[in-house]
Amino acid sequence: MKLVHQTKLFTILLVLLLLVSGCANDANTTNQSAEASERSKSQSKQGGELTYALATSPDTLDPHRAGLAVAGRVFRNIFDNLVFQAKDNTIQPWLATEWTVSDDGKSYTFKLRKDVKFQDGTPFNAEAVKYSYDRIIDPKSKSGNAPGLLQPYVSSEVIDDYTIKINLATPSAAFLSNLSQNQLGIVSPTAAKRYGDQFGKHPVGTGPFKFVSWSEDADIHLVKNSDYNWGPPNVENKGKPNLNKLTFKIVPEEATRIGSIQSGQVLAAETVPPQNIASLKNDPKTQLLKVNTIGLPYTLFFNQRKAPWTDVKVRQAVQLAVDVDSIVKTLYLGTYHRAWSPLTPGIFGYDPSLEGSTKANIKKANQILDELGYKKGSDGIRVKDGKPFTLNYVDGSPNREKRNDIAVIIQQQLKKVGIKVEINITKDIATVIYKNADYDLYGNSQVNSDPNALRAIYHSRTPEEEAVFKGLTGASNPELDKLLEQGTIEANSGKREEIYKKAQQIIIKDAWIIPIYVFPYTVAASKTVKGLSFDSLGYPVFNDVRIDQ
What we know:
By secondary structure, this protein is of the alpha+beta class. The strands form 7 sheets. It has a 7-stranded mixed β-sheet with strand order 8-9-10-1-11-22-12, with helices on one face. The chain has a 6-stranded mixed β-sheet with strand order 14-21-13-20-18-19.
């Protein structure tokens, strides 16, 4: 019995020894495989150049002056922010390491990183933060969307080199979220003072890439910031980029842009046209990356500064005459979703009850216009007080996301109710829309992280504000103003959500706008491109990108 027991014991020990040996061999094999994989990865990830085709040209690379989302896709790589907003809407440290909020919610005190410097070698500190935010609200800066995001900012106090106190006029539930947006990036005071109005052509920040050059309507060249070591929470690589160069090529023509990705002239291209999505999905050399942007959908705004657009019934008649479903299906082939609200799905406070609430009704639109005294002439165009009913539809150039095509379809649709649409395409949107307000209908969208974005668009504007930068509606509604003001300061999320739902309902009911589509940001890239991702707003992030050889 003793011998049997010893034999069994020996057998068990032998099996265990073999198992341990096998595990060790497996572990060694796994380790060797991992090491080989890591060696391969390290060989592919360092260096190289990514060429990225943009559908339109940025208006500026000065984040504080920018008005176009495409500009943010470039300058997001040049500038960093105090804080970062994750996809779950939590606010996380970035250039600021921590912060406290006063009991009354009207001041924020930020502690800043001490190891950061601007790309011109000057130090990042509290003075730089103060300079950046004061610059945004200075009328001389001619800022774009940034002042609306920074509201209700009043002033900053430098406590010490790496501590800053920010004072607000009122509490703001959106303030931290807005600080994460790229238009509020921190600029180099030295460079901004040096270049003045030309800073947008010589941008300097603390970001992972440094600006080199910009050839108008051709390309923008950036190179890696070798000193970078403070990446945001959403990237694996917190240090200097893997890429040596990042080049943005401006390719407005859809066919040329897609052809350039298929031919290998560029490695990635944005805004893939709907008609190309199926073929690119089947291309073994290409990958499709897609993310829905959040904020304000592509929306047509009535200019309520002048008749007849001051009359809600006229606006409602046009709203009823425009068949948005037909437009979206015809142009985007099921790849875009129709918008129903001033906000996009996915953003806090979005009201899904508005979906399906408005439908095209030509008969009712004609009835309203008849009742208002607009009579059809022999040419089919309505006339009132001897004046033909014409609508000045302004759109930008080039034909971004087929927006010019939307204008043509609406021109055809409104002709059915006796409205003559004159389409005016311009490259100078800043002057025509935001300086002169010379339009009846104009379309725009905005990437944003918080429903407080509605306030900058739909709240009444003072004459002083209008003199600097015309609003998109030119309208005023005291009830809506009050809701938007409450939404800014309301700390209770449930109450805040209801406030924004009421605001959306007023805007749609009173026909201030015609929402058209929610933009899915779609990128075609070579399969050699690894690590390309997107932030919570849909902007591409290049910190982790590497090119497989």
